[in-house]
TrEMBL record:
Record-level GO cellular component terms: excinuclease repair complex
Protein name: DNA polymerase-3 subunit epsilon
Alphabetized Pfam families for the sequence: GIY-YIG, RNase_T
Originating species: Micromonospora saelicesensis
PANTHER family: UVRABC SYSTEM PROTEIN C (PTHR30562:SF1), UVRC/OXIDOREDUCTASE (PTHR30562)
GO molecular function: DNA binding; DNA-directed DNA polymerase activity; exonuclease activity
Length: 604
């Protein structure tokens, strides 16, 4: 398709392939760059094999509002060869300012017979299909085109965009060119066509500038269109120097490990595509200061291929826990988890401990911090008359009571004003019931307290109790979910793989013991049998997380609870208490959202 003249001619109507959509307000955004949502071109495509459409617009000036375009010039090239040209004047439907006429030579009379932009867009969108869009100061030209599509109901194809002005700023030094204007670059590269502030001439000049800049990219180890787009953006010298670390990595699910010169792990991450994810660390989109520091110390990247995303996530957690990489912020030090347990003795109290013993029967957790455990403990103290002192009480010796007894907040077991049996029924039993099955009495007591405080307009105190209620519910819901899974000796599950076949997982006591993928078209049973034969032996234990970290078991739960996941085999039933904490999830969401004035009406 080649057109030239004052109007688009010989161009087929693309109304069928670019259907108009409901008109949407245009909001100018940054260029798509390497956004995975952009269309068409694979970022790994070599520059010599990439199809470029170099475009230039002339406009009436001002901001892009869906109109104002007076001329479009576009040249399609690949491998240095011109494939097509599109050039047309456009009737903007508004007067042309005199200074624009002086600058471009385009007069009002020239535009009267020209087609409006809504008639030109179908041809232009077809012309740029499956190509990389190139422009000098691309945000300006792309902004006008996107605004026009939005105004007239056409879907913008969101192509990858390369800005020759930005690329020139990265490639050429001030000693070579004083500025990066198109006229200056055209003179430097001695383009066959000089820019004239007419769309087609400027587009042809930009083609030669593009080829000249591409010729300079080889020395920067930029060979693909994705590399060129990122190189044009503001990457740091460290990212540019270390980008070779991303070479040769597999495009498969797995874990990647940035290692220092002494082989020490610096950072561990996971992805469904290791190569693409690691490459993103060397792009302008990566702006985290700690990652920049990490890249400066990194000397190599190690890839651990996994069967599927669940195995990758679990391996990532285990590696972070084992090595505590300095630049990972999350999932480190799982041994720092704490528990809230009911002590032994005739008058038990709540105690925060690091580990559970086999004799512990009433507990809650694990909590990620001591502060979270203290908040849940305060919730129970608000709801039930558990003693808060740390004395070891005796059934024979009386101990002086504290201020809480005088305030009516404690039944004073230290003074033997309550028998051990009565204390157990009123204080200890509600904690055991709440953690193991039904937290309803505790929830009712906290809601009633919130209701009283709210009626008395003591809203700050009500908010404190609300946060304690949220802590209690969050912990009980979490522990009961974990216990339901970890109580199963063995569970096999499958999920459809993206490329056919089945992703398989073998879980034992809440720990991922084996993983694999059955090939497309084959029955998954032989693969599952092989996984079971080589799976990790996992012994059960005490507590809701006997064989793995809570975070690992929760990752497995999330994978199992997806609608597409199928349970294949289980050694026993998977169930949770019918009157358990899970039924308070809506209340928990409200408590976490701060809706304390609504909580008093929630009872189930």
């Amino acid at each position: 398709m080649v057109t030239d003249g004052t109007a688009a001619t010989g161009v087929s109507d693309r109304g069928a392939s670019v259907p108009p959509m409901a008109q949407a307000e245009y909001v100018q955004e940054s260029l798509a760059g390497l956004d995975p949502a952009v269309g068409g071109v694979d970022p790994a495509l070599p520059l010599y094999a990439t199809t470029f459409v170099v475009v230039d617009l002339e406009t009436t000036g001002g901001a892009p509002d869906g109109g104002g375009i007076t001329e479009i010039g576009a040249v399609k090239v690949r491998g240095g060869e011109q494939l097509g040209v599109l050039a047309t004047l456009v009737n903007p439907g508004q007067p042309i300012p005199p200074f624009i006429t002086v600058l471009t030579g385009i007069t009002q009379a020239m535009l009267v017979p020209a087609p409006p932009i809504e008639q030109v867009l179908p041809s232009f969108l077809e012309f740029i299909d499956d190509a990389v869009l190139v422009a000098h100061n691309a945000p300006y030209d792309v902004g006008f085109l996107k605004a026009a599509c939005a105004k007239h109901g056409y879907r913008w194809p969101n192509p990858r965009v390369l800005d020759t002005a930005a690329l020139a700023r990265r490639v050429l030094t001030r000693d070579e060119v004083p500025n990066r204007k198109l006229g200056t670059l055209a003179a430097y590269f001695r383009t066959a066509t000089q820019p004239t502030h007419r769309a087609l001439d400027d587009a042809k000049a930009t083609v030669d500038v593009l080829h000249g800049l591409i010729g300079r990219l080889g020395g920067h180890r930029v060979d693909t269109i994705g590399d060129a787009i990122e190189f044009a953006r503001a990457v740091t010298p460290t990212q540019r120097r270390k980008r070779h670390l991303a070479e040769g990595l597999p495009k498969v699910p797995g874990v990647y490990i940035f290692r220092a010169a002494d082989d020490r792990p610096l950072y561990v991450g996971t992805s469904v595509d290791i190569a693409t994810r690691v490459r993103s660390y060397f792009t302008a989109g990566e702006k985290r200061a700690r990652i920049s520091e990490m890249l400066g110390a990194a000397e190599r990247v190690e890839a651990v291929e996994c069967a599927h995303s669940l195995e990758a996530e679990v391996r990532e957690l285990r590696l972070i826990a084992a090595h505590a990489p300095p630049y990972n912020r999350r999932s480190k030090y799982p041994e720092r988890m704490v528990w809230l347990k009911l002590t032994d003795g005739p008058y038990p109290r709540l105690s925060i401990v690091r580990d559970l013993s086999p004799t512990d029967t009433a507990y809650l957790g694990p909590f990620t911090s001591r502060r979270a455990a203290e908040l849940a403990a305060a919730g129970f103290h608000d709801a039930v008359p558990l003693r808060q002192c740390t004395h070891r009480l005796s059934l024979r010796t009386v101990t002086p009571a504290c201020a809480l007894a005088e305030l009516g907040r404690c039944p004073a077991p230290c003074e033997h004003k309550i028998t051990p049996e009565e204390y157990d029924d009123s204080a200890a039993a509600p904690f055991r019931t709440a953690t193991a099955s039904d937290p309803q009495p505790v929830v009712d007591a906290l809601l009633a307290r919130i209701d009283v405080l709210s009626r008395d307009q003591r809203y700050e105190e009500a908010a404190v109790v609300r946060s304690r209620l949220a802590a209690v519910l969050r912990a009980t819901v979490r522990m009961q979910r974990l216990a339901a899974l970890t109580g199963i000796v063995e569970l096999a599950a499958a999920r459809p793989a993206a490329r056919g076949g089945w992703e398989l997982a073998l879980v034992r006591h809440g720990r991922l013991a084996g993983a694999g993928v059955s090939p497309p078209g084959a029955h998954p049973r032989p693969t599952l049998t092989a996984i079971r034969a080589t799976a990790e032996t996992v012994s059960g234990g005490h507590g809701p997380v006997p064989a793995a970290t809570a975070e690992e078991s929760e990752r497995i739960l999330s994978w199992l609870e997806r609608p597409e996941t199928r349970l294949v085999e289980m050694s026993s039933g998977w169930s949770s208490p019918a009157s358990g904490a899970a039924r308070f999830r809506d209340l928990l969401a409200k408590a976490e959202g701060g809706a304390s004035h609504q909580l008093s009406t929630e009872r189930s």
